[in-house]
Amino acid sequence: MVNISNSDEHKTFNNNTTNKSGTIRFIPGFNSISKATPTVSIALNNSRGTTDLSITAPSDIINNNSISSTSSHRLLPESTKSYSSLRDIEISFDESLSSRVPNKTSNGNINEVAPIEFTTSNSISQNEHNSYQEILTDLLSESFYSYTPSVCGMGRCGPSVVSNELPNIFNKSETLLSVNKQRLTRFNKNFFIISDAGKPIFTMHRDDKKIIPLAGIINTIVNYFQVNQQAEIKTIHFRNTGQKFVFLNKEHIIIMIHSNLGESFKILQDQCYFLYSYLISTLTSKSLERLFRNRSNFDLGTFLAQSDIENLNSICHLLSNNFYPDIFLNALQSNPIEKRIRNKIHKEILQELHENRDIIPRGTLLYGFLLIGEDTKMAAVIRPQGHTLYTHDIQLLFCLVRRHLHLNTMDRELWIPICFPKFNSSGFLYSYIKTLSLKNKSVMVLLSAQKDAFFKLKLFGDRLLTRLGKDSHIAKIIISDNPCTGFSIKDIPAPLIHHFIFKSTKNAQYIMPIMEYNIKYQDVIENTVSCNDESENNQKYLGNQQKDDIHFMEDGIDLLNYQIKLQRYYMELHNSVTSEDGSKLQSRSVINFIQWDGITSKNISSYGDIDNLQSVNNRRIHIMGMVWCTPHFELYLISNNGVSDKGAISSSAKNILRWCQKHEQRLFIQNGAIF
Amino acid sequence: METIGIVSSSILKSSEGALVCEQTIVNKSRYILVWMLKYLIIFDPSKNGELDSEARSSLLLYHEFGDQYNCSINEKLSRIGIIQGVWSMSQEIADVEEGLDNENITELDNEIILTIFVESRFFVTLTLSNSDTENVITARNNGNNYESSTNISTNKIPYQFYLSHLWLSYRFFLLQYGTFQSFCNTDTHTTKQLTNLLNEHMIPFWNDIYLKPSILLRRGLDALWYEVFKCAEFNLNNSLKQSGATDNNKKDNIDNGGSVQSWDSIILRDVILNEESFPGIVDILIYNLPSNKQSKFKGSILKKQYGFIGNFTNDLENLNDLSNWLYHLHTSYGTISNHVITGNMHYKERIIDMEENSMYNNAREQNTTISNNGNTNSNTDNEYTTNSLENSKLKSVMSTLSSYSNRFLHNVTLPMSFAYDAIREIGVTTEISNSVSLFKDYIPRWSTEADNPDKNNCMDTGNISYLERGNIPRHGFLISPLANKNLPISYKIKKLHLKFKSQDNIRYNTLFWFYNDILLLIVCKENFEKIWDTSFLTEMDKLLTKGIVQFHEEVLKNLTLCDIGQIDRRFAYMVMEKTDSNQTLKTSIPPFFAETLFNSLDSRNKDNVSPLDLVFTGMDNCSINFKSMGKIFGFISCLEENEGGKDYSCDSFLKSLSDDKAWELQNNIVDLLETFKNSKKQLDSVNEERLLMLDNGLICYIRSDPQRLVMVIKNWYGIQKNKGVLKLNRKTLLDSLGKDVVDWWEQFQ
User: What are the CCZ1/INTU/HSP4 first Longin domain coordinates in residue numbering (chain B) (predicted)?
Assistant: First the structure.
């Protein structure tokens, strides 16, 4: 047990690794910080024989007390002896250093807040030091996680030195709300699908005056190299401006992506193929061939249904303006469920299948999934012995489900033919999609190769649902309106980590904690203004999908902005260890730390306050990211703002790894229900 | 033993070549692929509207490399059209600023098209091909348990090297002839003149790379950035700085005349500000271009001390281009001689006997068909190049004659050689070898430099006044009016277009002077007639000698063991300043280019048969063996003399990396640096640091901020954890690299 005491209160923390007790005595001013503001966080930086602490000192405390936020302090045990016996650590603030107070603006905001740093004495022995570190780790974990992310950022307290705010250090990307852009050139990313006769089929951002001649140019360029040099054009890269163009020339269809978002060519090529796969999934390659064989100048754009265009739009937005790591990870997101319960789900499914052989004979059901949440996390898989579907095909299916979840059409049962290009590009499979819980957004997907198997699958699905509902634990996860799914970053002993993605290469699945984010109120205001500026001229180009999306985004703009930020960070991390062609820099394993630091300008990071929108002009950024790739796993993580100690990050990364390995069966679907 | 060879795919088709290829696959050998240069196009689309010559006026240069067929004018125009099409499409979709000097890379299945857009008007396009005709450099590593990568594409010379050299070729043109635009503003005559100059400059530049792709890598990673130039790192405790001395500094130096003058003040006061020369001599640029053999510290060309030492003004704007030009010449030809500076030295394929041909055929660096007449197979298709073609024919005939005469001489003296061998054999066995040496004097020799370098350094150009004999240093003018009267004007004066601040880009006369490894470039005004005065030049030679001798005393003698590579650093670094006012690069990272990969001919061929010769043209069209020219700033030849041909030009642990690992590391670094290009962070406000730990035991740190790019490579296992309290106000990833790196960085800053 470790006792942490101060003059006002005592907190007790469990410590599994030490039987000693220690007391950290806080001076009253410091204590008042932790009481007054839940956003106080303490950073443990323990490396190379030193222990450094960065302590958040909220502005009001700094202003009202004599504590200098920029002062450098030493966290010194009174003596080595007293440390080892009493485990007392006293934090004292050196008033003499208060001259280094940060600049204050007239409105009371602080321009710059430097970390308060502490250093332990070198005389502490290594063992003592280790246990000391553990104590502090626990303390800091508890301190950090003891608050709930506030919706209004830091409130009146102002930003902390270590903050779970995630500033945007990247060039702003347009969101759906920015559809008022007049010119194509102003979009950071665009998707073009044209036929090989040069007819436009689909464009994400349209400009009718330009799209037809542009389609002609794209077609000419692709055909020129094909005819004259018997070669396919793959990419065009403007290195000075970072503009990238990626081409995919499949039979009768040319897809081009333009991007300025910094993705590697491999990712963009995968995205091209993803769009092509969607076309195949709706038409099959056979019918596509038939359509164009008869008439090479066939206008596929008019042939596609409105829903197809909307689905394509949805995919494009997912690939450009959303957090969708599935493509660059080439994996599916798994929903963590207790191993016992997951096994029970699989067992119940198999039992139901076995008992209903008369309704659903062998061969009727090909594949099945239980998905939870808007981001279609896999909870269970039903699959035949010796068969697996390609990740790429499953991603297509999940995109479809995701789309219907967004459209709120999930109160109905759906029977959708879908072609899986990698599985069999010339035929359809039929998917029965049933919503299990509207609030939970849990979905059951059953696949069959038989066109008329709807009623069989429906009956089976109903019975399965009834069966699963009988078990309270299972029901709580997949049917309940308030499910206990996913995990929070707080559940893992990984101090100072804001978010992470862990991919199990073996299972082609990844997990990540649920998103806990703070609204950038300023962003909301900015984007609302942007939305109001929409011209009528551009409104007409918006399909229903986009309008729906805008509606969705008005509700969820904060989440979306946060997701886009995460996407950019993870993209940077991923790119830092992969070359343009997607190959890893090293064949075996690689660890890469990235530290972003600097001062954000007003328009990048504006920590707003609902009551007072006066933002701080300059704000320090210290964010560290880490990538750890081995043949067995990939770990991407982002620290909180204010962290600059590699040792602390790598220590947390190891903790995450240990935690993931320990709970592997809970986190990932190993086999599924195999029949 | 490591054997590394170069095979071309055309050779692979032959039985012998195929055998080599199969063997290398079985032996898990490493292939290094070289992009094949396909064609070079320079055009001006603004001339498209003129119909007078079938829109060909837009085509300034069209050159196809190698044995390719002559394509029709329609094909040429279609290629121009597609380059423009790609550009205009991107302008329609993306914000590609037209006014900006930009570059684009179009990647096809089997080809890469590199295009740079210069002067807001001209396109310069180079096409690389990896089709059937690609070259394969095979590096075997029989001794090591190296597993070759399955991904062969990772073993190509990164295209970034070609792109940077495309920029360099353009910038070198500017340096020597001025902007393209200055030729295209008036009439068609000047356009033709531009075409002729492009033929003279661009084609030899790229032909050398076509024949010897290793040129791209010889400079190392610093060749990736054409905007910056390498600076030598010396402890200069005086007014001369690499950013240039100010006028106040000049005055201070002059006033400081009482005591022992520093080396730079000697040059400044006695040469630049001398009554006779002021203000005719505008600046003097000083470079250290050491060679292995001539280095004081045997066995190491130190990357750290290589390059620009300093100059006496701070307003020379194209100092980067000027420096890069010299480095390019030095690394390409292994020497800075008067022939190299005048642009008369180039590679050409060597005529060899049939037996020799079969010996080195498997190991050629290029797969170009060896032409019987020694022509370099340049296939220039341009209407305005008639004269050049005629010249080239003449040259090829002359070189053929020269080669025949060489062969004839060889045949004539063959009996004498046999006799000599026999007598020497007898002499050795009977221990009367001394008497044989008398006979040896009668044996005619032509490549005698190795035997008696002093004599052979005696160039017939008359510029070198003093030759190194024993410890006597060599110095003298390389380019100056002291040159032989019969030599062309280019041997007397090198005209360069330099831009000083507050002045337009104007031509200056430049002289080149050397003292051992130190090269001085003396920039004079065009109207400064004094340089034609022999006595003035002789006096200047003495004064420069005095200054550089003082430099040796002050600087070179004070180098520490670490500086000279006697103590290996545990890390290598590169710091690139990228602000407008300071575009310099300091590095200790050696070129990750193993001579063994490219000079494998020597290792494979006991007779040291090379398919390439350095020749100089323009004087008498005679092919002269490179070794007979005298070695002013030897580079390649010295390296060849090293064991295994390995480049020892480094002062860090990286020299102990095997060729494979070094190559792999280079490609990884290029990839890493490329990912910084992809980064979309707000450049003006956010700095980025990366610390990459690779599984090969290396740790790579890169920091990018608006001012500079810093890279440190360190041995993972060499990192000693910092003990004691780490200074908390310095928490960066750099600290993780250990105390030695932190100390270096603090010192460096």
Answer: 37-178
C-alpha to C-alpha distance for B608 and B356, rounded to whole angstroms: 10
Using a CB-CB distance cutoff of 8 angstroms, which residues of chain B are in contact with residue A587? 149, 695
Q: Within a 10 A sphere around the Cβ of B92, how many other Cβ atoms?
A: 18
- Is B678's CB within 8 Å of A604's CB? no
Contact flag B725-A644 (C-beta cutoff 8 Å) = no
List CB contacts (< 8 A) between A594 and chain B: 688-691
Counted across chains A and B, CB pairs separated by less than 8 A come out at 220
ipTM of the complex: 0.75
Instruction: Flag whether residue A347 sits within 8 Å of chain B, measured between CB atoms.
Output: no
Distance from CA of B78 to the nearest CA of A (A): 9
Helix/strand/coil (H/E/C) assignment for every residue in B338-371? HHHHCCCEEEEECCCCHHHHHHHHHHCCCCCCCC
Q: How far apart are CA B508 and CA B317, in angstroms?
A: 14
Helices (H), A151-255: 208-229
How far is residue B361's CA from residue B351's CA, in Å, rounded to a whole number? Answer: 12
User: Is residue A650 within 8 angstroms of chain B, CB to CB?
Assistant: no
Q: Which of A174, A191, A240, A624 is the best mutation test for B, with the most CBs of B within 10 A?
A: A240
Residue B202, helix vs strand vs coil: helix
- Which segment, A49-63, A430-444, A498-512, B261-275, is predicted with the most confidence on average? A498-512
A672: nearest Cα among A267, A451, A389, A407 = A389
**Residue B585 CA: distances (Å) to CA of A254, A509, B320, B582, B683:** 44, 44, 10, 9, 20
End-to-end CA distance of chain B: give it in Å, rounded: 43
Q: Which of residues 197-256 of B touch A (CB under 8 A)?
A: none
Task: Give me the residue label for tokens 């005591």.
Answer: B259
Give the chain B residue whose CA is nearest to the CA of A188. B94
Min Cα distance A24 → chain B (Å) is 21
Alpha-helical segments (H) within A65-125: 80-86
Percent helix, strand and coil across chain A, each rounded to 5?
40, 25, 40
In angstroms, how far apart are the furthest CA atoms of chain B?
86
Look at A151-160, A171-180, A313-322, B91-100 and tell me which has the smallest mean pLDDT: A151-160
Pairing of strands B229-230, B584-587: parallel
Among B112-116, B182-186, B315-319, which range has the highest average pLDDT?
Answer: B112-116
> What is the residue whose two structure tokens read 């019969």?
B486
User: CA-to-CA distance for B372 and B366, rounded, in angstroms?
Assistant: 16
Closest Cα partner for A512 from A421, A638, A400, A399?
A638
Q: Identify the CA nearest to A434 among candidates A400, A453, A458.
A: A458
pLDDT at site B420 = 60
pTM, to two decimals: 0.75
Q: How far apart are CA A194 and CA A218, in angstroms?
A: 8
Chain B positions in Cβ-Cβ contact with residue A591 (cut-off 8 Å): 692-693
C-alpha distances (whole Å) from B610 to each of A557, B396, B449 are 68, 19, 17
Q: Do A72 and B729 touch (CB under 8 A)?
A: yes
- Chain A hits for B105, CB-CB cut-off 8 Å, are 235-237, 239
Contact check, Cβ <8 Å, A598/B687: yes
Q: Collect all residues with Cβ–Cβ distance below 8 Å to A50 and sequence separation of at least 6.
A: A119, A120, A122, B725, B726
Taking the C-alpha atoms of residue B649 and residue B301, their distance in angstroms, rounded to an integer, is 4
- Rounded to whole angstroms, the Cα distance separating B325 from B332 reads 10
Per-residue pLDDT tens for B61-116?
A: 999 887 766 788 888 888 888 998 888 888 888 766 655 668 889 999 888 999 99
Half-sphere exposure (Cβ direction) of A314: Cα atoms closer than 13 Å: 23
Check residue B444 and give left, alpha or beta (phi > 0: left; psi -120 to 50: alpha): beta
